[in-house]
Amino acid sequence: MEYVDSEKNPCDDFYAYACGKWREKHEAHTTATTLSETQINRQYEDLFSYLLRNLSAPEHGYPFYRKVLTHFQNCTALERPNLRRYIDLLGQDLLSSLGSTHWMNVLAVLGRYGYHGHYVQMEVRWYNASHHMIFLLPHNRDVNLSLTSEIYNAISQVGPSWPPLNQLKEQFENLEQNLIRLAKSHSADDTFRKYSLDQIRNEVTELEWDEVFRKQLGRSMAADHVFQVDDLVAIKGLVDYLNKTDTLLLNRYSVARFVSHLLELPHNPVANWANGKRSRGMDCIRHMRRSLYLPMNYVYERSFYARRRSADELVIHSVFKQLQEQLELRVQGNALNLSQELVNNLKAKVHHMRINVGNLPPNVSEQFYWASDQRWNVGRDFYENHLNSLLYYYTLVSDLEGSTNQKERKIWYSFNMHTPEFPDNIDATPYFYCLGNIIFVPYSYVKRPFFYAGFWPALLYGDLANTLGHEMMHAFDTDLVDYDAQGNLRNFSDQLGQVELYNSAVGCLNTSAVMLNERTSDVSGSRLALQTYGGEWLSRLDNGRLYFLQFAHFFCGDTGDQYHDSGSQRLNYSLSQVPQFAEIFECRNGTGMRSTDQCPFW
Q1: Which domains are assigned to the chain?
Q2: DSSP secondary structure string, 529-568?
Q3: pLDDT-based confidence at residue 538 (cuts at 50, 70, 90)
Q4: Which helix (H) or strand (E) segment is 270 a member of?
């Protein structure tokens, strides 16, 4: 209640009313999410400090802890950037033969660390609820190299003498222009097609595909192994051009792009290093949470969350189940007049949706974590540890793509081990993952003010039900609706586009929104949550007001981003589409929070 500005009229601008005094209490750009993230990072920092002082603590005998502590120590010992160290760790054999090694072989070595941004891209991606696949793509025409003096000084120590910085920049820019020109064929339609390895060999004969796969993935491929390929015509054109281009130039460009990529990975302390200062513990923790997702989540679970899990899951799964049942009923009601086949497919998607609290594999033994621990090596300094963490992640993903062990696969598809390239600093709020048909609830969310297992219903449903409802409705948004219950891409949006009532509902919402898919989820998720909470709860004393205030605080201080409108826009618009809000706050017709144009989306 201390954030409420009682001088504002909630019917004119509910955000101004509910979050009016937020800025008085917190710094600019602070949200409830950033407050929660800061708390978690401090918990890590305090734990590491304690364990480094107490070498006999029992945690030292658990999986991951010793290696995480070593990584943390080496990171905080980082005194100044030494980009040359990254390059040296690639191996002297590779560096001494940049003028003679085929460009794709160099790219395959860099691909072992997850780099695949140029020439011909080969990467392993999560494909559906039970499989990864290898994707082949032409050069990424949207990303070019920014050759800084720091990168040039590091790479120009490798091999024969290098041209001056400006001259090399010009050579790289000319190369990029040619790559951009070839990166898409005239017939490209931005869709992936399935090709066997044998078909790829026959279409692009100028590349030793078997050798490339062995170098990057560590194994051979059968001739009938299936790949997802984007524009094989463009790939063939790029291969033809690159095979005729100066090998040394191509490989120098690859090494420069690789170093640039490492610096651009989220929260790399080397990139954020300030002159004369060592890395701070908090910087290192942010970096480790991104680059060592499974080990860091395991540490947080065992040290902080395990004791709360049972009580939390009892409540969270109960609310999730209620929302599922309500949404299934809503789909079955078929107010949009969809075909019965589409109704059945969408109901199946809701019915088979899963939820994972904390984002670790549920119900696994310690042996699973010990086996994962054995695959990960730490080295002598930050640079070696950083590369090893990348190697650890991408080797796991590569092996998963080729594994036939169904028991092991089931474990790995029960959670989302984020790629180190994930743009945000860990998952800050729950999110729906379309390929797995699963909602992940991160540790940063299962904390006050968002969630507490003992909350009154008005507070519990005001945030948890609205948040889960929002994420569930992403399964039906205008983009992710195309993924079915098993995470396979279907043509559901094409079918929906032929339904007049559906098009009308989407058109009603598609005004002044940064992202239509967020608006549809805000509105339909709020309605679903309120329907689930519903009944007489709203009319009891101040329950209705508390419900909407709790919902509002999720948005306080949020200025928006490229994917979301500002918190004030999202909150006010979604609640203006909920008639019960106007009833609870006694808003008259014509006020800002009582929209006369109610959009019938789901």
Answers
A1: 14-36+293-584 (3.40.390.10), 84-264 (1.10.1380.10)
A2: HHHHH-GGGGGSTTHHHHHHHHHHHTTTT----SSS--HH
A3: low
A4: none
